Amino acid sequence: MTQLETQRAQKDDFFAHHPQSPLTAEQRAHFTGLDYFPENPALRFELEIEEFPQKEAVQMQTSTGDQQQYTRFGKVHFSAAGHPAALTVYQSQHGFFIPFVDSLASTETYAAGRYLDPHILPNGRLLVDFNQAYNPYCAYNDRWSCPLTPFENRLSVPIRAGEKIFHTTPEAA
Length: 173
What we know:
It contains two helices and nine strands. By secondary structure, it is an alpha+beta fold. Strands 2, 3, 4, 5, 6 and 7 form a six-stranded antiparallel sheet that branches. The protein has a three-stranded antiparallel sheet with strand order 1-9-8, with no helix packed on it.
């Protein structure tokens, strides 16, 4: 089993059995695991961060109408599906955060977007691994409040890595 497969199995176990699972009891009763894209090494990057000269504080709207504060830290550039792409990197007290929506939203990926929690490598570059892309908890049910993806992080390219859209019942998949 690869490290990614192990992480995914652990996450599925957490969702199925842990009291802090984002799933409701009814959802857990029918849960057979999350749906993932196959591991895609071409969507794992070590990227330079183009830091913004002014790191402005922004309020991100959430799925429940609240706001969460982040700092617009910088931008990363990469290529996906043969097309150039860029995403803004945000920072909070918890570290770096990249919310994004790709061109598969509403069909293969969650309509409101997915998240990445990249980290700085010893060489000063940012590890951006789309295989680690995950759905926010509000993708599972509406009792969760999640930051909505800012317009600047809406990609016109597909990102076929990470978690796919969540279906509440096996028949829906």
